[in-house]
Design brief:
Length: 379
């Protein structure tokens, strides 16, 4: 039986960073005829308004509105985090004007303290009639929790694709982030949930009795300080094969080696990872991470087709950029999951219940990135 033809959606891709970020938005907004919607996080990270401010400075008269996702995990916040959140809200109000901001609540804990973040995020951003009024939707994940950010991106791709195929407008979707690995590492850690959760639509059919015998492959995308998450997710998935993804190349040439050293005992002694299974993905190009993961999943699809397919699980435990790359690889494979070599794709994560206090300042290591995920560039 011949191999089904699969085409990577984001190859080629549109990514701009640094000076290229400014140049892209200068050109994209020239003429002031666009209607912009920003999807923002009501978080404590000081980078929250860096990208929107740059873009609005170049709006050239385009209308700008914002959806502000208000996460509610029913846990107390420190005085510092509360102050930082309020300062970010005030900066957003100054940028957009109070009347141009719509607050959307996202409750993160359900009955019995269960994780409902992904389901509630999906519900919050699924507003088809409103989305159709804009030419461009920009999701800024700089101050968003991981589950909120990835769910919002995945759902907006799906909703905007559906809008276009049903005869509506083709709305551009962008993701922007003020990225700094060094600042992320300085943020104090909090406490973790006791349970492993999955993004809505990306369960990987982990508990399905009909696919219980399919091989399980796990791709943990590694960053620093994630040992507790790794152990919990591994125990939940019980994978047959583990393929760690290490950031490389990186701004710090030794970062990949240091991450391997940090997890050496866990990966090689406890998890029995084969060194040949390690993948490398660029720290600062999410589309390269997407390509690496997509290709690896593709190879497992082909290798295990005679067994009826496989279950693949990806855990985004690294930077925001690498996490987006991982999401795109999963999204693309899920969209092409039919055929004899089917794959069930899951995104498994352990959410934070409480947060430590953030780093003090935004420093010169922060870079702005812009990813164009759907819309005019595809036509």
């Amino acid at each position: 039986m011949s191999r089904p033809s699969r085409v990577m959606r984001w190859d080629p891709y549109v990514l701009r960073a640094g000076e290229g970020f400014d140049a892209f938005w200068d050109a994209h907004l020239k003429g002031g005829s666009r209607k912009l919607l920003f999807v923002l996080g009501r978080g404590f990270d000081l980078r929250a308004d860096a990208a929107p401010k740059k873009i609005i400075e170049r709006a050239d008269g385009s209308a700008c509105h914002a959806w502000l996702l208000n996460y509610q995990n029913d846990q107390p916040d420190s005085e510092l985090r509360t102050r930082r959140i309020q300062e970010n809200v005030e900066r957003f109000e100054k940028l957009f004007g109070v009347a141009a901001i719509t607050s959307l609540d996202v409750r993160m804990r359900g009955a019995g303290n269960s994780n409902v973040t992904s389901r509630n995020t999906k519900s919050a951003v699924t507003r088809r009639s409103e989305l159709a009024n804009y030419t461009d939707v920009t999701v800024d994940i700089s101050a968003m929790p991981r589950t909120v950010a990835l769910t919002a991106i995945a759902q907006l791709i799906a909703v905007l694709d559906e809008l276009a195929t049903s005869g509506g407008p083709s709305v551009n979707l962008h993701v922007v982030v003020a990225e700094s690995v060094s600042i992320d590492k300085k943020h104090a850690s909090g406490s973790l949930s006791d349970t492993v959760s999955s993004l809505v639509g990306f369960s990987g059919r982990l508990t399905s009795e009909g696919s219980v015998n399919l091989p399980r492959v796990w791709f943990p995308v590694l960053g620093e300080g994630q040992a507790a998450r790794l152990e919990r997710i591994r125990a939940e998935i019980d994978p047959d094969e583990i393929c760690p993804v290490i950031p490389f190349p990186t701004r710090d040439p030794r970062r990949g080696d240091l991450i391997i050293e940090e997890y050496r005992q866990l990966l090689f002694d406890e998890f029995r990872v084969e060194p040949s299974n390690i993948l490398y993905a660029s720290e600062y190009n999410p589309f390269e991470a997407y390509r690496q993961l997509y290709g690896a999943i593709d190879r497992y699809r082909d290798a295990l087709r005679e067994l009826g397919g496989c279950k693949v699980f990806v855990s985004p435990l690294s930077s925001k950029l690498l996490s987006v790359g991982a999401l795109l690889a999963c999204y693309d494979h899920r969209a092409q999951q039919g055929g004899p070599d089917r794959v069930n794709v899951g995104i498994s994560y352990v959410e934070s219940v409480t947060y430590g206090d953030p780093a003090d300042t935004v420093n010169t290591s922060t870079s702005l990135y812009s990813l164009w995920l759907r819309g005019e560039w595809e036509q």
